[in-house]
Amino acid sequence: MNKVLIGVGPLSADEVVSVARLGVTVELALDAQEEIKQSRKVIEDLADDVTPHYGVSTGFGALATRHIPTELRAQLQRSLVRSHAAGSGAEVEREVVRALMLLRLSTLATGRTGVRLETAQAYADLLNAGITPVVREYGSLGCSGDLAPLAHCALAVMGEGEVRDAEGNLKDAGEALAAAGLTPVVLKEKEGLALINGTDGMLGQLVLAAHDLRRLLATADITAAMSVEAQLGTDAVFAADLQALRPHPGQAASAANLRAVLAGSEIVASHRDPANCTRVQDAYSLRCTPQVHGAARDTLAHCETVADRELASAVDNPVVTRDGRVESNGNFHGAPVACVLDFLAISVADIASVAERRTDRMLDVSRSHGLNAFLADDPGVDSGHMIAQYTQAAIVSELKRLAAPASVDSIPSSAMQEDHVSMGWSAARKLRRAVDGLTRVLAIELLTAARALDLRAPLAPAPATEAVRAGLRELVEGPGTDRYLAPEIEAAVQYVADGRALAAAESVTGRLH
């Protein structure tokens, strides 16, 4: 993808990821330019109207009863942005800020906000120059949209505040714009409000998280399959006809992945004969993998549906309708996004929890079916992966706390004008941390299962799990006496995070669900 064309229609999730994460450039389509010009004319025609119009000739929030005279309306917009750029805390990640700016530009491109074409173009120019406004962790209540984060971006377009340039250097916004050959925007009627009144921050983080979770859920099926092999589990429970008795799509997809990844395993075949295996059934953490992983898949599918609807939305207040009305509305409320962000955090915690249980079974000599205690070379002298599981457990405990919903909270603001808020930004921030935690939990399961498969030699794992194990062995040595473990965990984390583990399995199976 060389360039993303931003028209009146919605962006795709892949386009958001490409611009936010990969730095792909953007261009305003001709249809969007025309819509922007037409809606701007509506706002300009209201400039001298004696009837109050919210955001054009009035104050904001609880101050909306104040009528603003014509000569103060440009100052009104500048003051709005400056006062709302009130974030605090650590800097928000570059990809999140780029997603936020892109999604605000997408709403501007619908022609429903009433901004000038040069103001919308300024956002495209900022993205293309690689200039990223400094946005702080705290400041959004998720209603009226992500006000403070968006205000920091609008401030940068005005040539004020702090930004990071394309090389990541911290600079004054005016200096960075000048170095890129860009001119600060002087905001006019309605524009300040249009730049800050949207759910773009929480939506951008939802899209990025969903993209990462698609890969992680497929990887979770792979690490689970490796654990099944390592613990001499059976693949019979993953049969398609058994799964069809409970026809959840995610469950079927997960089971199909497990069958594909385990196909041809000598380890699994070695104990299919009842004469060689006295166990009637495996523990839940192995046997119920499709049910647990499938529930998360179905949750993700629902969340992606909500994200697609939001990507097709024009979120602002007031909006300029196609027939020329300027109307107040409540579409800026982040409830639809906040709820699914919380929903995903619950599923992330559940996937990590079952992965940690599978890992723990491989380390317990009483449950691992012949493996060394903690997979140690010389148990007692060596501790093997004992503390790697502690790290997993600490992360899972954190993920359970992060699964507590943010969207059930509401702290009234703006003198009770904004008396119910979504806390969607907070839900998005904790989901990002949860996705990182899940990545680490799955990496430790993979690292542990790979060592267990080595210890099952001369029995060979399935070709797909062998490909994953072999790829890891290019980064991390196999079994032996205890080594400095943290760098090996980090190598496994990167192997999972950048998709190499998934690609290794798919080099054998073809594309997994």
From TrEMBL:
A Gene Ontology biological process term: L-histidine catabolic process to glutamate and formate
SUPFAM superfamilies: L-aspartase-like
Catalytic reaction equation(s): L-histidine = trans-urocanate + NH4(+)
Broad EC category: lyase
Molecular-function annotations in GO: histidine ammonia-lyase activity
InterPro entries xref list: Aromatic_Lyase, Fumarase/histidase_N, HutH, L-Aspartase-like, Phe/His_NH3-lyase_AS
Gene Ontology CC: cytoplasm
Subcellular location, record wording: Cytoplasm
PANTHER family registered for this protein in UniProt: HISTIDINE AMMONIA-LYASE (PTHR10362)
Family stated for the protein in its record: Belongs to the PAL/histidase family.
Protein name from the UniProt record: Histidine ammonia-lyase
